[in-house]
Structure to design on (476 residues):
């Protein structure tokens, strides 16, 4: 509200800024336009986020060696497994924020933000300790070669775990903004993180010659810089809430709702991580060159499906806001639009990357054995991306309605009854060159499960049962 001393033009300018930064209202307007607008900015943000991760691999692969490339990539599933619970709760909080925002319940939006920040501050401490203690035993368990690769992987993973708090804070900021439909500000934070990471990577690796340790320290420092910048920026420009990292304002009922919504995603992430660790163990058995090729190609693969992830996240936000508005028909139109857009994107992605797989792999390391391994990975999975699009979009829409158990079940079946056993069976019968075909086998099964759940219409009952939360916050 304007004060008497303010100029009218200044008041109008502030109102325009507030309108832009308040988020995107997806309960009105053309679903195709809204999804493309929201996901295009989110896509750029996701590209920056993945590029942030790729820089580490590119720097160590070119300036430290293929063993360092193998070391940086092999520890990611272990880190992801240990933080899965909190990441799932974060997804639940994002869903809640989108639903409250769609219902115009701004008070609950603010209280959910406070609750999530309190949870992230508390959870990061034990996870850091556990991560540091289990890094070497778990890396040894998954067959990381003891030829220098193991020691480098331990160093990298331990430093990443020490930087758990800024990582959580950075991702909480992004999740809050996603729930509000604000992908512009998320992009800004990711750009800051990327610029800091690239500069620090090159400084610590090329100037200080810290190797893998330098890359890990650069990652932690860049996330810390982007996290603090995010807090300052959001508090200066938003009026719906104020971030207080150490305010410790906590609503148990909101946390339980976020936990209920996010726990299936937590379990799904954990199962995925364990499956990735088991798959990584198979890959590690073929030596450091094959590991390096797999890890480099995995970065490219993750980069390539960023558009699908962006459309899925946009679908979750679109669905969540329209749950708050109780508009089932609009939810269905949004899902159809997301499917059309994402499948079209798959064709473009495959056409761009498939013929240039060799070129992209050489960005990480030009050793022939490493490049050959990575190209094999990419050309085995890219043609099957439309299956991945179906899995992502249906899962994202179901999460937005609060139907989070189905994506978890689909992930479990696809991973543990399809991808992992088929990878080991294929390796045994046909050799290592065919193990990547286990990916599309899993996608077929997973997409069938989520599609069946979506078209069953069971989720519609959750739309009509949704209730805002108006109770006052309790300090804890």
């Amino acid at each position: 509200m304007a004060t008497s001393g303010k100029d009218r033009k200044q008041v109008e300018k502030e109102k325009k800024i507030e309108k832009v930064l308040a988020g995107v209202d997806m309960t009105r307007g053309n679903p195709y336009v809204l999804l493309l607008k929201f996901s295009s900015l989110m896509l750029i943000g996701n590209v920056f986020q993945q590029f942030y991760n790729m820089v580490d691999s590119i720097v160590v692969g070119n300036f430290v060696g293929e063993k360092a490339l193998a070391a940086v990539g092999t520890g990611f599933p272990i880190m992801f497994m240990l933080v899965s619970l909190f990441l799932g709760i974060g997804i639940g909080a994002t869903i809640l924020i989108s639903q409250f925002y769609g219902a115009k319940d701004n008070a609950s939006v603010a209280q959910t933000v406070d609750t999530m920040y309190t949870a992230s501050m508390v959870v990061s401490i034990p996870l850091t300790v556990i991560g540091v203690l289990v890094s070497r035993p778990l890396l040894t368990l998954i067959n990381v070669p003891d030829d220098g690769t193991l020691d480098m992987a331990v160093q990298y993973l331990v430093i990443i775990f020490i930087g758990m708090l800024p990582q959580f804070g950075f991702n909480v900021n992004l999740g809050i903004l996603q729930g509000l439909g604000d992908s512009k500000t998320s992009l800004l934070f990711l750009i800051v993180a990327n610029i800091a990471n690239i500069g620090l990577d090159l400084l610590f690796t090329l100037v200080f010659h810290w190797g893998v340790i330098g890359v890990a320290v650069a990652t932690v420092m860049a996330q810390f810089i982007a996290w603090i910048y995010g807090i300052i920026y959001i508090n200066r420009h938003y009026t719906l809430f104020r971030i207080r990292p150490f305010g410790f304002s906590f609503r148990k009922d909101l946390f339980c709702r976020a936990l209920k919504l996010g726990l299936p995603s937590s379990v799904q992430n954990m199962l995925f991580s364990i499956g990735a660790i088991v798959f990584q163990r198979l890959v590690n058995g073929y030596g450091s060159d094959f590991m390096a090729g797999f890890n480099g190609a995995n970065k490219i693969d993750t980069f390539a499906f960023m558009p699908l992830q962006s459309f899925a996240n946009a679908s979750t936000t679109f669905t969540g806001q329209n749950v708050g508005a109780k508009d089932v028909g609009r939810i269905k139109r949004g899902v159809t639009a997301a499917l059309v857009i994402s499948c079209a994107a798959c064709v473009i992605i495959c056409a761009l990357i498939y013929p240039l797989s060799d070129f992209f792999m050489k960005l990480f390391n030009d050793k022939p054995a490493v490049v050959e391994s990575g190209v094999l990975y990419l050309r085995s999975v890219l043609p099957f991306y439309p299956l991945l699009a179906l899995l992502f979009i249906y899962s994202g829409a179901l999460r937005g309605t609060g139907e989070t158990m189905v994506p978890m079940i689909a992930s479990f079946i696809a991973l543990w009854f399809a991808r992992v056993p088929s990878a080991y069976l294929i390796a045994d019968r046909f050799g290592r060159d065919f193990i990547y075909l286990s990916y599309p086998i899993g996608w077929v099964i997973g997409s069938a499960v989520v599609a069946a759940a979506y078209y069953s219409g069971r989720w519609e009952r959750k739309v009509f049962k949704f209730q805002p939360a108006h109770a006052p916050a309790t300090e804890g």
Remarks:
- Residues 106-141 form the longest helix (36 residues).
